[in-house]
Amino acid sequence: MAAVSFVTILVLTFAFGYLNGRTSAGSILATVVASRALKPTSALILIILCLAVGPFAFGMAVTGSISVNLVRWYAVTTPVMIAALSGAVGWIGLASALRIPCSSTQAFIGSLVGAVWAGFGAQAIIADGVLRSLAALFLSPVLGIFTGYLIVKLAYWVSVSATPRVNKLFKNAQVPMSVLVALSFGSNDGQKLMGILALGIAASSGHEFSIPYWAAAFSAISMALGTLVGSLRISQKLGRQLCSVQPIHGFGAQTASGIVLLGASLLGSPVSGSQVIASAIVGAGSAERLRHVRWGEFRSILRAWLLTLPFSALVGALVYVLVSGFFG
To answer: Rounded distance, CA 313 to CA 307, Å?
Structure first.
């Protein structure tokens, strides 16, 4: 039974990383492709390489936040981990089928909390840790909007007397910023995946919590494969439907996203990369004029984000009830 549990958790974790790459990591491509700073194929290759390196970069602070700060250790059991991963994978898969961007981080936290609540009650949930994680999740998009707005405003001020050739400068500057965003995204999301994997292995084996040496490579491969399959569709939705992206907006959005994601990784805050990037695009677009942003599309994405936590928690709780007898 231990072998079945281990394989089940391994498959679900890989599926979670794959769907995370397929539905979220494609947002990294949004501005750099929409503003034509890079061709889609070149951008995709660059982003995949950076995502593969990301889990090895910027420390392990996020891994600790996602693995030991959310629920009590006695509640980390095989049924809980299978239910948490199944709930997250199920919600992300549904959102992907409906072509709605969603937060994989919110989906996992919601499913984990729902499964633990169903199995062990509210006392097994570390309220402070959950609240800190949720605060980071909801604060990071606000920072993305604010930072994107400020950077584009500053760029307009600096280039007020420049010729149209300045557009080429902004377009070229997006490439290194895209590298920073991809590395930071891979670090934050890769560390989350490593922490989830370590939790699952500890739950199924009964051993002490430890991160296996191959966890970073496992995370990188699963996310890179998902990005390869589904990135371009998501990037087109975010880049063109949120606002009309020009080189200056692309530069502002990429720079803002990189700053917020890198800061979150260094501070150990698990955030949603897709939320940060979409919000930075909104902030960069609104710096020119509020009408520049297609707010209706942004509101539909926001509604989807707000649904993720309660629905994934419900799914996690239901799956726990179903699997607890078999894997208990």
So the answer is: 10
Question: Tell me: the pLDDT tens digits for 123-176?
Answer: 999 989 889 888 888 888 889 889 999 999 898 888 877 777 777 888 788 888
Q: What is the dihedral of CA 326, 120, 13, 182, to 10 degrees?
A: 170
pLDDT digits (tens, 9 = 90+) for 242-270: 555 677 888 888 899 999 998 988 888 88
Helical H segments across the chain, by residue range = 2-23, 30-34, 40-53, 61-68, 78-97, 104-120, 127-158, 166-205, 215-241, 247-267, 273-286, 295-327
Contacting residues for 62 by C-beta, under 8 A, at least 6 apart? 187, 188, 191, 192, 195, 264, 265, 268, 269, 270
What pLDDT is recorded for position 35? 65
pLDDT band at 233 (very low <50, low <70, confident <90, very high): low
Q: What are the backbone angles phi and psi of residue 206, rounded to the nearest 5°?
A: 80, 5
3-class DSSP state of 125? strand
Burial of 318 (0-12, 13-18, 19+ CB in 10 A): middle
